[in-house]
Specification:
extended; single chain; Arc Repressor Mutant, subunit A; 3 strands; 2 domains; mainly alpha; 6 helices
Length: about 120
Amino acid sequence: MEEMPLPALEKVAAYFQALAEPTRLRLLNLLRGGERNVGELAQLCGYTAANVSRHLSQLQQQGLVERESRGTSAYYRIADAAVYELCDLVCGQIARQSERQADVRAAFMAPPQAAAASRSKR
């Protein structure tokens, strides 16, 4: 992102903003297995079809999903599978951060016997 003009940065921010909502991430994850219609996605998520459609519309605006009308149903599929690589990268980073934080917490949460034994050796 070196020295990008403001309009380009705004486009990047809008892309990440589309990914910054748990419902939309859940919908993307459900679409990993292939295309689904709004009703199927709503049922799987436990949300209303209107709510799912609104989130899918935002994902479509950013080019993350494609929409196809068939009769009375709208089907959605992933437009670019690279979004999963991005999500996997972020999830891996979060997991590594959690591991580091757990290690730090563990150092402060040593069992009382271990702490007492450590003090008696001094």
